[in-house]
Specification:
The protein is of the alpha/beta class. Helix content is 40%, strand content 14%. A seven-stranded mixed sheet has the order 6-12-11-10-9-7-8, sandwiched between helices. Strands 13, 14, 15, 17 and 18 form a five-stranded antiparallel sheet that branches.
């Protein structure tokens, strides 16, 4: 030990726990004594500490390598890492996707496969699947990123006007500046509030209730962090739909919360059932403290659009059972089926009157990643909080401030989504044309997917009413189920992995989202261009027929 280090120790006490016979408390517990410079040997100050084991000094143990050389073990190992992280699973980017990436690399290296390309139909990444960005959005973002372009006459004036307004709201008139309002840029939150008021037929929205987020996922995880507390039977439980988007189960696992499954009714187009909610809640109360109910509408992975009556019933259920509602509404523009309509939870809540609108705690989420925008990479989003306790709201603001602010380009894009070109502005007609074309194409592909899948014996698919996915039910022969179990795989994982290896099509097995015992599914996005989607569906049909014949 250096003389300097010894001097530092001499001026402060280092607590040690001792259980010596003369140092026990009356109750038999450990007593704290102190290690001072007098305790250390002045003639050999390093000897006292070196006599302590490596473990007691907080150092990793040393181990002998094969060649006889001592090597220090890692501080962070699979055994010493956070155990809740090891429980996290995220099927959308699981082993199937990893193998798809390997296959792409093998193809690029010239290896022969029974297919010429890997078609990734596993994820709702619209632009990766060929969807074109909205011109106006990219023009404004380009102007914000490189303000010199404001002098370029090729950009329309309404795009320049939006860009100037966004830049004026940024520190130093730059999107590169850290924004000091941690809830998000003021002008953007004001535009979000006005958008919500228009969407919900005039229901008031306070910009102070808006928090801009790094995509909707960030807001969802933040709210779950606020909710989770307690131990044992008092540990927070959160109700999530099955099938579910794996973000929810992953976040709950990481936070050590209790996942409470309620099952959507596949026979009724994946609708919610109040009696099923009640069953799940009553069972959960035996071992945890249920505090929140999560709803995804339109649904992921199931593609259903809940009716207004269903939403009203869910709100009434949450009120009666004192549950906070979390409404994941990122697909609110993605509604395709005739007779279906998106109803925001907030609008229905306020239409039910003060008995509910003044009491039910609701947090709703939206994003730039889905709908007609598909701008997943910009990570823009917002959440709106309703009826939150003022002290909790202050804690929420503190929590988001720790992460400084969401990406400013994502905030700017969110502003454009909620404040697009208006009638009479130069970009309006082209914006409407592009928006309509994108949503119309998605509607056609939703119908095509349902129709083709339902022609395949052993596959049944509910109507894709909204969102970006189909979640068909598949029949897997008993022989294939047994082979999958012998390999330690879920049967639908075995099915999807074989499809990937034989056709190059990357889907996600239903077991990654949850499903009723004894049933099997896969999730497939409807995002590929129509010609590629047609090829994909035909390949699925050929594979399923071959697979069924092989294992019958």
């Amino acid at each position: 030990m250096s003389a300097t280090r010894l001097q530092l120790l001499s001026h402060r006490n280092v607590p040690l726990l001792s259980r010596g016979p003369n140092e026990l408390l009356a109750g038999g517990g450990p007593r704290v004594r102190t290690l001072t410079s007098q305790t250390l040997s002045s003639s050999s100050p390093g000897r006292a500490l070196s006599s302590l084991s490596a473990t007691r000094r907080g150092l990793p143990k040393e181990k002998m390598s094969e060649n006889g050389v001592l090597s220090r073990a890692k501080v962070l190992t699979i055994d010493t890492m956070n155990p809740t992280v090891k429980k996290v699973e995220y099927a959308v980017r699981g082993p199937i996707v990893l193998r798809a990436v390997e296959l792409e690399r093998e193809l690029s290296e010239g290896m022969k496969k029974p297919f010429s390309e890997v078609i990734k139909a596993n994820i709702g990444d619209a632009h990766a699947m060929g969807q074109q960005p909205i011109t106006f959005f990219r023009q404004v973002l380009a102007l914000c990123s490189y303000p010199e372009l404001l002098n370029d006459s090729t950009f329309p004036e309404d795009a320049k006007s939006r860009a100037r307004r966004i830049l004026q709201s940024c520190g130093g008139n730059s999107m590169g500046a850290l924004q000091l309002v941690f809830q998000g840029i003021d002008s953007v939150r004001q535009d979000v509030a006005r958008y919500i008021e228009r969407r919900d037929g005039g229901v008031p929205c306070d910009p102070d209730d808006i928090y801009l987020t790094t995509g909707a996922s960030d807001g969802i995880v933040t709210m779950l962090k606020l909710l989770v507390c307690g131990e044992g039977a008092t540990r927070t439980g959160v109700m999530i739909s099955i099938p579910q988007y794996p973000l929810y189960s992953a976040a709950l696992a990481e936070l050590g919360a209790v996942q409470i499954n309620y099952y959507l009714n596949e026979e009724k187009c994946w609708s919610m059932d109040i009696s099923e909610l009640q069953r799940a809640l009553d069972e959960a109360r035996r071992h945890c403290n249920p505090r929140a109910l999560c709803v995804i509408n339109p649904g992921n992975p199931t593609g259903q659009v809940q009716s207004r009556q269903c939403i009203e019933d869910v709100i009434r259920f949450a009120a009666n059972e004192r549950l906070l509602l979390m409404a994941d509404e990122v697909y609110q523009d993605n509604v395709y089926a005739e007779g279906c309509q998106f109803h925001s939870f907030k609008k229905v809540l306020f239409e039910m009157g003060p008995e509910y609108s003044d009491t039910v705690e609701l947090v709703s989420f939206h994003s730039t990643s889905k709908c007609y925008m598909g701008e997943c990479g910009f990570r823009g989003g917002y959440m709106e909080i309703i009826n939150m306790d003022d002290e909790v709201k202050a804690q929420l603001t503190k929590l988001v401030s720790v992460r400084l602010c969401p990406p400013v380009p994502g905030q700017a894009l969110m502003d454009l989504v909620v404040n697009p070109p208006q009638p009479g502005e130069p970009s309006h007609d082209n914006f409407i044309k592009e928006r309509t074309a994108t949503l119309s194409a998605l509607a056609e592909k939703a119908k095509l997917t349902e129709q083709v899948l339902n022609t395949i014996q052993g596959i049944s698919c509910n109507p894709v009413q909204g969102a970006m996915y189909s979640f068909p039910r598949i029949t897997i022969p008993e022989k294939a189920i047994q082979e999958a179990m012998d390999k330690g795989q879920e049967p639908d994982m075995f099915y999807c992995m074989k499809m990937l290896e034989e056709t190059g099509i990357c889907l996600v097995p239903g077991s990654g989202f949850g499903q009723t015992d004894g049933t099997y599914h896969f999730r497939m996005t409807i995002l590929p261009p129509t010609d590629k989607l047609t090829i994909l569906l035909n390949k699925v049909k050929e594979f399923h027929q071959k697979f069924t014949q092989q294992y019958s």
